[in-house]
Amino acid sequence: MPRHQVKIKHRFTSDPDTVFAFFADHEQFGRLWPGRTRRIATGQDDPNGIGSVREIRLGPVRFEETVVSFQRPHLIEYTVTKGSPIKNHHGRIEFHPDGDGCRIDYRIVFDGRFPLIGALVARNLPRDFVAGLAAVGADLR
């Protein structure tokens, strides 16, 4: 069982379809944090859907995430499949209508591949994502 967990809740003033479309687009997803993100494999039924792979580069670190569940506009799940300093990773983003907007519940569980890495990622990831979510939220209005 993974030892680290990150939970992020955020409300957008945009509707669930708009917010889901942003999170589903691998290139747009990269706006949430300081790394570069691009799609390197296309999904089965949707370019960014199940089986699609995004490459993320954070400085010298390069890793890949594969989408394992894609239920428009309700749910995206993905896992790290190559090259990360973390292992046993599972990311889950739920999209919920909230009045005239959308609330996301984002949960990531993982283990560090090396001592202290998991704790470092668990501490820094929420800070980076919250800053990214605020910036993206302003653009999605």
From TrEMBL:
InterPro entries: Polyketide_cyclase/dehydratase, START-like_dom_sf. It holds the Pfam family Polyketide_cyc2. Coiled coil: none annotated. It comes from the Bacteria. SUPFAM superfamilies: Bet v1-like. This is Polyketide cyclase/dehydrase. It comes from Oceanococcus atlanticus. The lineage of its organism: Bacteria, Pseudomonadati, Pseudomonadota, Gammaproteobacteria, Chromatiales.
